Request: fold
Amino acid sequence: MSTSRTSPFLFLAPVAVGIALAIAAPFVPRVAHADDACGTKANPNAGLAAALDKVAATNPDPSWTTWTTIAKQGADAARKGDVAGAKASCKGCHDGYKAKYKAQYRMKAPPK
Ligand code: HEC
Reply:
């Protein structure tokens, strides 16, 4: 239980919220500013890619070998505008790790 190992993944919960906002962001403005929808498609995807890059860097457990790969694949897909590919990474990681993460890491206090 060293701090060097615990500190990065404590950011994961806020990152998950950030990802959720990045996903939600494209849909909200489209309702209010329908004309912008075509021209701004890349912007929310860039935000999502950045969020997934951050997730990739916060692998909490060295034994979770596909965590980083899944998140990076999602980030690459988001950068290409491949929303389906980006969403596949959400599911891939949640199916593989969310339950384990909650069981092992969720109760740790966030850093001050
Ligand atoms: C590499 C792993 C990984 C990837 C990729 C990932 N997540 Fe998560 N996500 C998690 C983990 C772990 C949790 C549980 C965190 C906790 O409970 O503190 C979580 C929780 C969440 C939550 C909180 C609600 C819940 O079901 O527990 C949301 C919302 C969420 N993720 C959305 C997304 C979306 C949207 C994407 C894709 C764009 C995504 N995540 C990609 C690992 C990931």
Q: What stands out?
A: The chain is about 65% helix and 0% strand. Residues 34-105 form one domain. The longest helix spans residues 83-104.
